[in-house]
Task: structure prediction
Amino acid sequence: MPDPAATNSPGSPEAQTDFIRDRIRADLAAGKVRQIQTRFPPEPNGYLHIGHAKAITLSFAVAEEFGGKCNLRMDDTNPEKEAQEYVDAIQEDVRWLGFEWDQMVYASDYFGQLFAWAEQLIEKGLAYVEDQNAEQMAKGRGTVRTPGTNSPFRDRSVAENLDLFRRMKAGEFGDGEKVLRAKIDMAHSNLNLRDPAMYRVRNLHHQRTGDEWCIYPMYDWAHGQSDSIEGVTHSLCTLEFEHHRPLYDWFCESLGIHHPQQIEFARLNVEYMLTSKRKLLRLVEEKHVDGWDDPRMPTIRGLRRRGVPAEALVAFCKHVGVAKVNGTHELSLLEYFTRDWLNSRTWRRMAVIDPIQLIIENWPKNDDGTPHVEWKDVKNNPQDEDAGTRAVPITGKLWIDRDDFMEEPPKKFFRLGPDREVRLRFGYAVKCVSYDKDDDGRITTVRCTYDPESKNGKTSDGRKIKGVIHWVSQEHALEADTHLFEPLFAEADPASFDGDEFASILRPDSRRIVKAMCEPSLKDAKGGDAFQFERVGYFYCDPKTSEQGSPVFHRTVTLKDTWKKQQGK
RNA sequence: UACCCCGUGGUGUAAUCGGUAGCACAGCAGUUUUUGGUACUGUUGGUUCCUGGUUCAAGUCCAGGCGGGGUAACCA
Result:
């Protein structure tokens, strides 16, 4: 028997080909690099989302594939928005995805080196201290169509610049009073090269360096240099940094230090999901969701609490590949990988999401007059013999799902209706003889008779029964809060909506909480367990809100439902 | 509008030195099935954005258009 996990895991092995790996192979073949070194460099100012999952997977997987290493680096150059809380969360999320970094590093580890290098640039006449304020600098930079103009402070002497820069570091100036700028070209067509800022004064406490520094390096100045220090060979980042590459190169060349290769790829977009930190923050702050780990959030912790397995997420990220085209992936692809992984390993259980009762009128009674209970051992996973069995009780009073009965069923409805017969999953064939409705006309009870000879897939007279429905014994049912999710947004491209529109495309029904009637074995469910509720979907036992004997389930994804799909047409 | 990047079936992504479009998901049909699930099989979709050019041969090279995205923070 082949390994079942290997036969249907689309995200796995075959050597991937894309422009980045092609480049790495070429660099290796040409002897340009000996060993691959990559890094994942988040700023610890928020939680990681599905877009980061792609970047993480890329950098770590590439390193692994080519026998190299990948560092996790906190780009902590702006203490204003950063916090230890995020550092911890990021590490936890990366580990949860299943990656282990070679070194855990911080851009702030390099503040000393960065300062020394800045002095070198000043000595080479390639950097100067600016006295203008932000507004004046912006004006001097020009626009995309007009060249900038040189700052009146651009030609200060090396000695003066050095002195001023050291005094900046010494804390002689207030926030915004001075910045150190690279001296490049104020008329350059790439705005990033119009004398970009390297250091700004920020009299702020840094979560790691404390009060040691009052000047902090800008992204462009810190990033490439950090890469260089770590011996990064291929610095992978998203497309919006393309315009920064010339500056990245300029700094490395001006310093004459190891020069990593920055390569940009398209960021991940998925239908109905947002990956803008700003908008995700808005969702949290305006309480449209319960927090960063709300199962509807595209954050890694949201996805995790939704029940999406890390392996499925990584397989998805590997599968979507890497290119320079900005596109949007269909949600169904993520769902496919989620189901694919869950299908082969989760235990099956029965649970009724929207219960109506089914009464078997000819169900036997015990000698003492009490209702008969029949226990049946059934498989935990029909595809996995090793998964074992559990016992489920069959009685004459059951819960079944409202969807499984129709008063006036259409032609191809294989479930229950007047005079129709179906099989109870793992149990007997039952035939509907009558049904009750409440004052609103809603079905409350379906009455059936059962065929005692119909156990084990047979029927007394050999007749074929097409439909099978799931059920739960009323007497033994465990009632559990169950959260059913739909996308947060009604539009597939929520990113194109802003302002008030943004709130108007939120779906009011993105989360429905129902009381599901579960088979009794589910009372043993522990936080983190995943199940397939037969014919319904995959459900994840929420570690945060579940209690011993009282699980709370999150619907990760529904099962494929061809019937429902056909009806929708 | 200046500059940069990109443009292959519904979606995403492949195609060594240019050699005649592959894969996955979705869709459709069928087989198996005590999950309308899974598995398996088959199948519909592409004049590779357009127009010209180079060539025996172009998705691949060149030119011009058209379309999409990005960029003007003392953020990253």
